[in-house]
């Protein structure tokens, strides 16, 4: 009887270990977090420049992480080549070396889509090779293929939301309720990339959207805006109406452990000082509220 009890105890422990590993996903190292958050730029903020220059600017802004996007020119020396999940080994090695040189960790890649399961496997292989925490997409039609890859590669996926399109009712990702329902019965490593700026443009309150998606927020494109319900340039955190401090509090309350990207679509030619202020805002808020 004792042997049988011990056997079933070991079996239960083994099953628990399998379940824990199933949903572990590639975590972002604590040492790159600032104020408890993995905060850094979305390379799209520097889309007038190359990926190598984006890495340099990320360092100047005080970041330790970066989110890449597909199609950015690779470097001033190789403007004909691009950062992409199809890049060759030599270019990939050069990218890794550049990241190491500036002590920047790549944590996410998007917004990206695949034409079929084969391309999605290629995207996940690229993400695994680069050691990414997550991938950002709006590819709804291939969600079955995405889920299959999530389970195989143990990399998270966040569904991004652009603003509401009055002339295109087929576009539903702007609505956090739609995103919640899209992912609720999927692998828990599939969720949302919470874009607070696009929510604001759509007339939605960012904090309320975060609450709707509780437990499913994989990453965030955190933005501050001057107005709710109108498109406008991004603002330095804390100077707009999006209540960035409140958003950080909600993310912390939810146990959020993903990356926050400063996707700063303003002052395109010289936005490093503003992005640095955004990073400093998050860092200061996190340090102040660490014990709460």
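-> sequence recovered:
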């Amino acid at each position: 009887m004792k042997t049988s009890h011990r056997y079933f105890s070991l079996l239960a422990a083994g099953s628990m270990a399998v379940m824990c590993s199933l949903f572990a996903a590639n975590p972002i190292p604590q040492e790159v977090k600032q104020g408890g958050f993995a905060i850094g730029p979305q390379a799209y903020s520097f889309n007038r420049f190359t990926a190598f220059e984006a890495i340099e600017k990320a360092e100047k802004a005080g970041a330790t992480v970066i989110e890449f996007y597909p199609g950015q020119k690779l470097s001033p020396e190789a403007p004909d080549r691009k950062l992409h999940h199809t890049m060759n080994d030599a270019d990939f090695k050069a990218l890794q070396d550049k990241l190491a040189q500036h002590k920047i960790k790549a944590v996410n890649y998007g917004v990206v889509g695949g034409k079929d399961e084969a391309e999605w496997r290629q995207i996940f292989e690229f993400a695994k090779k680069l050691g990414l925490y997550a991938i950002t997409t709006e590819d709804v039609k291939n969600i079955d293929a995405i889920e299959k890859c999530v389970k195989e590669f143990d990399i998270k996926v966040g569904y991004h939301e652009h603003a509401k399109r009055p002339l295109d009712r087929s576009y539903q990702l702007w609505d956090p309720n739609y995103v919640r329902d899209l992912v609720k019965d999927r692998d828990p490593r599939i969720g949302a990339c919470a874009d607070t700026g696009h929510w604001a443009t759509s007339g939605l309150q960012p904090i309320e959207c975060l609450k709707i998606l509780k437990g499913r927020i994989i990453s965030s494109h955190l933005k501050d805006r001057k107005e709710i319900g109108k498109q406008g340039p991004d603002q330095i955190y804390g100077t707009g109406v999006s209540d960035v401090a409140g958003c950080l509090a909600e993310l912390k309350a939810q146990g959020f452990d993903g990356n926050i990207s400063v996707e700063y679509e303003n002052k395109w030619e010289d936005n490093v000082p503003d992005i640095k202020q955004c990073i400093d805002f998050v860092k200061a808020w996190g340090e102040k509220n660490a014990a709460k």
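Confidence is low (pLDDT under 50) at residues 1-22.
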